[in-house]
UniProtKB/TrEMBL annotation:
<dbReference type="InterPro" id="IPR006439">
    <property type="entry name" value="HAD-SF_hydro_IA"/>
</dbReference>
<dbReference type="InterPro" id="IPR023214">
    <property type="entry name" value="HAD_sf"/>
</dbReference>
<protein>
    <submittedName>
        <fullName>HAD-superfamily hydrolase subfamily IA</fullName>
    </submittedName>
</protein>
<dbReference type="InterPro" id="IPR051806">
    <property type="entry name" value="HAD-like_SPP"/>
</dbReference>
<dbReference type="InterPro" id="IPR023198">
    <property type="entry name" value="PGP-like_dom2"/>
</dbReference>
<dbReference type="Pfam" id="PF00702">
    <property type="entry name" value="Hydrolase"/>
</dbReference>
<dbReference type="GO" id="GO:0050308">
    <property type="term" value="F:sugar-phosphatase activity"/>
</dbReference>
<dbReference type="InterPro" id="IPR036412">
    <property type="entry name" value="HAD-like_sf"/>
</dbReference>
<keyword id="KW-0378">Hydrolase</keyword>
Amino acid sequence: MTNHRRLFPDHHLDAFLFDMDGTILTSIVAAERVWARWARKHGLNVEAFLPTLHGVRTIETVKRQNLPVDPEAEARWITEQEMVDTDGITEIPGAARFLASLPDHGWAIVTSATRDLALRRIEIAGLPMPPVLVTSEDVVRGKPEPDCFLLGAERLGVAIEDCVIFEDAPAGIQAAEASGAQVVVITHTHREPMSTPHLTVPGYDALEAREGPNETLELFQA
């Protein structure tokens, strides 16, 4: 670990919780193709609409448009299209290596996607399957509420205060902050610089994790 700086040295860390889209993989190109088709079909301004998508559940995005449609039916259609349109889905740099280095007791993926879509994208991106996966079906309140992250920590059997959450989107960052965990912001997919008090990194190439005493985790940055 020569020339590596230990992050959160004063915190006891038991687990890392990862958002999926934009954090460990990028599906923005594929997702925006599907959502653009949906937006045009319903007469929405595509250019204004697309930046509002990321970090929240599909059904909540649909509901926010106040359209005379069945939100659940529309969300199902969008998810079905996203299951098929997978061109351009890739890992965030270094994510596969970093995730593979973590012990099974120490990490989870927490996403606003459905379980089927999450599993599909994880496979397409070539990432390891998580020991714990929390998806949109598992919580009543999605991000920016912290429920999904709290559930992820609970399923791992750790306190949320002893977790680091990796996020990229404002709604997810807000949820992470509300949970009480430490936060790292992944900026690989950001089109504009984000003002945030949290540590920001472009990806995982400069990050290293290792096990500490009593199955704890330690995080380092080159």
